[in-house]
Design a protein that fits this description.
The structure is a single chain. The chain is mostly helical. It has one domain. Helix 1 crosses helix 3, helix 1 runs antiparallel to helix 5 and helix 4 crosses helix 5. It is elongated and about 50 Å long. The model has no long low-confidence stretch (mean pLDDT 90).
């Protein structure tokens, strides 16, 4: 495996995912802000949280890119469609397991049971992150497929 390629391509794929998600936010399709959710794990100031969250998201993207690259290596090939399938698996786990469990560990996120007395600054995402807008599951799925396709295409020759 080309480790320099994995690191560079992980950044490219994460940038593509982030750009697509930001465009969806600006278009009003979702209120899910990965950088804010991640950044508020470490600071309560929203502006600083977005900066910290951006770098946390890049690091997480690198970690997932390593997993994708390892999967491609195990399969002895990388293609856009295998990347897309991995993106679907990735987002499926994120929307059904990771995001619904996040309120249990996030210090600034309300839980579904917190009630009106909660002082949390972030609402819980809920199953499929539906609390951030009805189109959020579709938007999140598309951006993760973009991520997987990017990695599949970029790692094809490596």
């Amino acid at each position: 495996m080309d480790w320099a390629g994995w690191a560079l391509f992980g950044l490219v794929a994460t940038s593509a995912l982030t750009a697509a998600m930001l465009m969806a936010q600006l278009a009003g399709l979702t209120r899910l802000d990965f950088a804010l959710v991640l950044g508020t794990l470490v600071t309560e100031d929203p502006d600083r949280a977005r900066v910290a969250g951006f770098f946390l998201h890049l690091c997480a993207g690198q970690g997932f890119a390593l997993g994708y690259a390892a999967t491609f290596a195990l399969l002895h090939r990388a293609t856009w469609w295998i990347g897309a399938l991995l993106g679907i698996l990735h987002v499926g786990i994120a929307l059904t397991v990771i995001l619904p469990l996040l309120p249990g560990v996030h210090p600034r996120m309300a839980s579904e049971r917190a009630g009106p007395a909660s002082t949390a600054v972030l609402e819980p995402p809920g199953l499929f992150a539906i609390n951030y807008g009805i189109p959020t599951p579709a938007v999140t799925t598309v951006v993760h497929i973009i991520y997987g396709v990017c990695l599949g295409l970029l790692l094809q020759g490596n």
